[in-house]
Q: What sequence folds into this?
């Protein structure tokens, strides 16, 4: 079974994402911030990471930068999931190593299509 790590400081967003991902056949883990996400990733390398941009302490952009420098950090598919809608910001996320981008709010069809685009469905 594929594993997806959902990283968001909102418990509600994590819960919604969990339901969608479990319906798509993923095992789901959750992290409330960037430091927790990086620690979890080192323990059990997920196939995908659904990553919020704006979080306290460490932004999603900082997470993806650090992740991609770590051993094994190129393996998970990273999909940003954020309300950031400026094209320059989206381009920055992709340039730093994100595989794709989802705008909030999202639904199951959007998540499924992005996971298919990165080769996980």
A:
């Amino acid at each position: 079974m594929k594993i997806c790590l959902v990283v968001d400081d909102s418990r509600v967003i994590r819960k919604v994402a969990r339901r969608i991902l479990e319906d798509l056949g993923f095992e789901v883990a959750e992290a409330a911030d960037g430091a927790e996400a990086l620690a979890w990733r080192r323990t059990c390398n997920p196939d995908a990471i659904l990553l919020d941009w704006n979080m306290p302490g460490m932004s999603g952009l900082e997470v993806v930068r650090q992740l991609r420098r770590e051993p094994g950090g190129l393996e998970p598919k990273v999909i940003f999931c954020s309300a950031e809608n400026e094209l320059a910001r989206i381009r920055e996320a992709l340039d730093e190593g994100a595989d794709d981008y989802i705008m909030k709010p999202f639904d199951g069809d959007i998540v499924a299509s992005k996971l298919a685009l990165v080769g996980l469905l």
User: Anything to note?
Assistant: The beta strands are 3-7, 27-31, 48-51, 77-82, 100-103. Helices lie at 11-23, 34-43, 60-69, 87-95, 108-117. The longest strand covers residues 77-82. Residues 11-23 form the longest helix (13 residues).
